[in-house]
Design goal:
It is an enzyme of class 4 (lyase). This protein is α/β, with parallel strands linked by helices. The protein is built from 19 helices and 5 strands. The protein binds flavin-adenine dinucleotide. The site of flavin-adenine dinucleotide has 28 residues, from α9, α11, α14 and α16.
Length: 435
């Protein structure tokens, strides 16, 4: 009889809620990971940084597990089929996993939990990827918050009670000896799951105190290494959110605030799954997007003639990362200057970002478009020149990504700023003021 820990977006051994509980169950624990065919087949580009990141982390996990005499079982297929064959092979009593709040994941887990239950196996799920989930931070009337500021206030209040209980890491004890070992310890290669290796550097996973110390001064300047670059690690759970919150409390309230945004958008996605395809604020369903495909292509390729916008898009295309300030500027430019539906931009980011996370990306896009929870007011249209002046005065970041800026080979602006600004305000005003 064995228990299974099903790794998903929690790719670490230490301070992992479900794994901790699995190991305490007393059964030998077989750790598994499933490359989900449903998700991978949707990725048209077979060189994918995310898949490669996961694969890389699985290899690291497997090496770490070897120290405890254990092995990671990696399968490829639809989760249902994989579970059917696992049940044929092993005598499983319990399955442990950490909760995921994306609609696809929730449905998948429900199907698997029901299937397991029909075979007499319990599926036990835990909170691990956020500090507060679902209904843990709600308004006095029990309804979910839809504005960040009051949510964050309540979040902080709750964090401080019970002697820091909510951000205590799970103890790291010798329970690891309960791991189950398979006869073979090789894991599937990227090629075996239909992908190719590409050259990419992944951000390091440690929390750097010097970055947190200066975070509030440096965080908005893309030419400076002023933010943690930990987003991909939060995305795949290679670092623990509890440890991050401890560091935030100790070194940078501003940084901690970003981690609250992360919880906030996960909570929003959980309570309002319609945001995946719909405006959070449904009155904007009547907004008349222009959706010009050539302009969209120019934006994607970093050829709008607005250096700060193009620099951001080129950084994204080349590295899979974009600084937060640039995410705000490029998203605002697409939705306001070009009046292109935020869903187009969101999809593009979803294909390209190494740290792509449905909740944060959707939240960020709807914020920029003015259709979301804490939306940018519609009359607030980022001015690319002012943004450059404020955040990249010496053009250090811009010149890195747009080296042809002063050579005569750079395209003219795709649209005049003043004209575009007025056009956007009119389109939004029609709805906001009902004119
Ligand atoms: P830091 O500044 O060091 O912040 C620490 C952590 O806090 C981040 O790693 C991230 O996990 C979290 N965080 C920071 N800002 C936000 C935010 N606004 N919302 C939610 N979580 C936040 N973040 C993603 O992780 N994945 C996405 O797909 C994503 N898409 C975005 C799209 C748009 C249009 C916008 C405006 C923002 C998006 N963000 C997304 C949020 C933010 O830009 C990135 O988290 C941040 O740039 C990552 O860099 P960092 O790790 O150095 O962040």
């Amino acid at each position: 009889q064995i228990a299974i820990h099903w790794f998903r977006r929690d790719l670490r051994l230490q301070d992992n809620a479900a794994l901790y509980h699995a190991l305490k169950s007393g059964y030998p624990v077989l750790p598994i990971f499933i490359f989900d065919r449903n998700l991978l087949e949707n990725l048209s580009d077979k060189k994918d940084r995310r898949v490669q990141f996961i694969h890389h982390q699985l290899n690291l996990l497997n090496k770490e597990l070897a120290r405890y005499g254990s092995t990671l079982l990696v399968s490829y297929g639809t989760p249902y089929k994989v579970w059917t064959s696992l049940l044929e092979k092993y005598n499983i009593t319990e399955v442990y996993a950490n909760r995921d709040y994306e609609p696809y994941a929730k449905e998948r887990d429900q199907v698997i939990a029901e299937y397991l239950a029909s075979e007499g196996i319990s599926f036990k799920s835990y909170k691990d990827q956020c500090i507060f989930e679902m209904d843990e931070v709600v308004k006095a009337d029990g309804k979910p918050y839809t504005l960040f500021t009051p949510y964050s206030k309540k979040w902080m209040e709750k964090l401080m009670i019970k002697d820091g209980f909510y951000y205590q890491p799970y103890p790291s004890v010798d329970y690891m000896q309960n791991m189950f070992a398979l006869p073979s310890s090789t894991i599937l290669s990227l090629e075996e799951i239909g992908f190719q290796t590409m050259k990419c550097d992944f951000p390091k996973k440690g929390i750097k105190v010097d970055i947190l110390d200066k975070y509030s001064q440096h965080r908005d300047f893309p030419a400076v290494e002023g933010t943690s670059r930990l987003s991909v690690h939060f995305r795949f759970g290679t670092i623990s959110i509890r440890k991050a919150v401890q560091a935030g409390l100790q070194y940078s309230p501003k940084w901690l605030n970003e981690l609250i945004w992360r919880d906030f958008y996960m909570m929003i996605l959980h309570h309002f799954p319609s945001v995946v395809t719909e405006n959070f604020n449904t009155k904007y369903n009547r907004l008349e997007w222009r959706n010009n495909p050539e302009e969209f292509k120019a934006w994607c390729d970093g050829q709008t003639g607005y250096p700060i916008v193009d620099a951001g898009m080129r950084e994204l295309n080349a590295t899979g990362f974009m600084h937060n300030r640039l995410r705000m500027i490029t998203a605002s430019f697409l939705t306001k200057h070009l009046l292109i539906d935020w869903r187009w931009g969101e999809q593009y980011f979803a294909q390209k970002l190494l740290d792509y996370d449905l909740a944060a990306n959707n939240g960020g896009w709807q914020w920029a478009a003015g259709t979301g929870t804490d939306a940018q007011p519609y009359f607030r249209v980022f001015n690319p020149s002012t943004q450059t002046e404020k955040f990249d005065k010496d053009l250090k970041y811009i010149k890195k990504w747009v080296p042809e800026l002063h050579t005569g080979n750079y395209p003219p602006p795709i649209v005049d700023h003043t004209f575009a600004r007025e056009r956007a305000i009119k389109a939004f005003q029609k709805i906001s003021k009902g004119v």
